[in-house]
Amino acid sequence: MLVVLLALVVPAGCASGSAADVDDGRPFAADSPFNVAVPAGAALDPGSAAMVARATRRGEVTANLYAYGVPVYHAGRGDPAYDVTCTRDAEWGPCPLGEGRRRIPVAAVPSTGTDGALVVVQEDGSVDEYWQARRTGSSWTASYGAVNSLGGSGWGGSSTGAGASRLAGVVRLAEVRSGTIDHALALQTDDLCAGVVRPPALKTDGDSDRSDCLPAGARLQLDPSLDLSTVRGLGPGERAVARALQVYGGYVMDRSGAPLSVSFEVAGDATPATPGSVYRAAGLEWDYYGMPHVPWHRLRVLAG
User: Where does the signal sequence lie (predicted)?
Assistant: First the structure.
């Protein structure tokens, strides 16, 4: 555990910035659901085929690289501290972000989509996770959020619909650059079951009553018997995602506008027109890129 925290904590006194220039290693505990490989011979959900057919009906899985990507920053002692106001306290109870002053780098910018996502890794090993974050002049507000620990399970709070950490499962710039993603992925779907919560999920924002809906917390895996070296046109980014899904799978964490999508870190050089040089070099050409060369029909939903 200590090794994990030392790899992720910002050195004392350092000012900070986007995580695009930082190799964080793998966050969360070694026994986190995100860091444990799918067991060999894992059983399938009886409805797997129908759920996969619905989730991959467009022949793609969307890479959320910009508008609904996740900006990740590191805060050090040189960064300003704010009293953060959460505007949904009255509905959902006290917001953890409002329990003390939070350091946020001056350069921090939330994602541009309606989630307004923002993650700030603090030098004490805590992770501040903002939902619908907004900077107003010299102050910050958020609709709600969570504070998790880099040494924890990767689950807890209300920064995602299923109660997962907003940092958990996010594909990072350093991982795409290296070609290796050593953890399960964060998935979203437009067909998230209403009222169904499958561990390790803690809750759901699902609204689907279809028989082929995906439950919050469902774990999807790309068929591990698939030989990726035989798949034509597979770029480095798609290959890294596919391999991670074979080994670790991915957890359904949120309701979204796409049939199925994967969360990526927002690159420091990203714009509405380009996801940034690292992603482009890996063959991930634009925001919402569908990763069409991966044989998505070979996904499967594991039994809960």
Answer: 1-19
Phi-psi region of 275 (alpha: psi -120 to 50; beta: other; left: phi over 0): alpha
Q: What pLDDT shows up at residue 64?
A: 98
Asked if 169 contacts 185 with a C-beta cutoff of 8 angstroms, the reply is yes
**DSSP helix/strand/coil, 18:** strand
- Residues 97-108: tens digit of each pLDDT: 988 899 999 999
Residue 301 to residues 73, 95, 199, 224, Cα–Cα distance (Å): 33, 33, 14, 13
Phi-psi region of 260 (alpha: psi -120 to 50; beta: other; left: phi over 0): beta
Per the CB < 8 A criterion, the answer to whether 71 and 118 are in contact is yes
Q: How far is it, in rounded angstroms, from Cα 67 to Cα 217?
A: 23
Q: What is the residue type of 131?
A: W
Which residues is 130 bridged to in the sheet?
A: 118, 145
Q: What is the pLDDT of residue 24?
A: 65
Rg of the chain, C-alpha, whole Å: 18
The pLDDT of residue 227: 98
Which one, of 182, 176, 203, lies nearest residue 277 by Cα? Answer: 176
Domain ranges of the chain: 27-69+167-301
171/176 Cα distance (integer angstroms): 7
Note the pTM of the prediction, 2 decimals.
0.92
CB within 8 Å of 143: residues ≥ 6 apart? 86, 87, 88, 116, 131, 132
Stretches where the chain sits below pLDDT 70 are 1-24
